[in-house]
């Protein structure tokens, strides 16, 4: 019997290096020239295309590697609910990071594009929500997650989520993506469908774009003089956000977990397997004697990416300290 080619840790890390190089040196350039057009180039050419080409060149089964399996409508709707319920948890995670950074000085938080009218809202939904949701999920919950499964499913989810957060190369937006990466990763593995991650990612980004649009609309309609006069110190405001979103996140996160357990029970019943907490995500079921053997050389590509992230973090912290 011929052994089927499968992704390994080295494959995942090589693609990560390629994607990071393209994102840093080409993505940043095209986005400076034209933000919206640059984002489209970044998503479809620099993030989506490399994993597809890699799999095609290596003659590795694309459908199986990326988990392009059907997802029921019921589970798709539940995944949207889970994602929205986990949104406060992701905001809490980012708020904690920014609270820590605020202790060094004044923050200079990069602003995401915000829609000022309906046509801009539709464009941003197509770019930031749909395009990013498809392309980034193929890269991370498709290719990266599958490559790291040589170490076990749980480790694959955690490591790919951390690398997803680092890939943003922005301390202000590091911990939130890691949390969402964990959510999408567990959903993809539980359902054995990349569409679970895509739906979740699209829902999350679409919700963020919608909130930005509503905030912009309210800003134009409501007077801001009183709000400006009542401005509070950044650190105190962030501390309040951490407390509020922490409390809300505990409640919504618990509900999201219950929905996730419901999805697992549905799949367990369908496949006629015993329902255990680790039944779907048990590392023992995913390890293979051939693919779990990884060496230090498999991680060498990361040695070219992590130092750059550390440099970016140093620059951002230095800027915060300078702003005092």
What does this structure look like?
This protein has one domain (9-323). Helix content is 72%, strand content 0%. The protein contains 11 helices and no strands. Helix 1 packs antiparallel against helix 5 (118-148), helix 4 (73-102) packs antiparallel against helix 7 (175-191) and helix 6 (153-166) packs antiparallel against helix 7 (175-191). It is globular and about 65 Å long. The model is unreliable at 225-231 and 274-286 (pLDDT under 50).
SSE diagram, text form:
Blueprint: H1 9-33, H2 35-58, H3 62-65, H4 73-102, H5 118-148, H6 153-166, H7 175-191, H8 194-221, H9 225-229, H10 234-271, H11 306-323
Q: Looking at the structure, what is the overall shape?
A: globular
Whole-number total of structural domains: 1
- What class would the helix/strand composition place it in? mainly alpha
Total E-strand runs: 0
Helix content: over 70%
List keywords for this structure.
324 residues, mainly alpha, 11 helices, 72% helix, globular
In brief:
The chain is mainly α and 324 residues long. It is 72% helix and 0% strand.
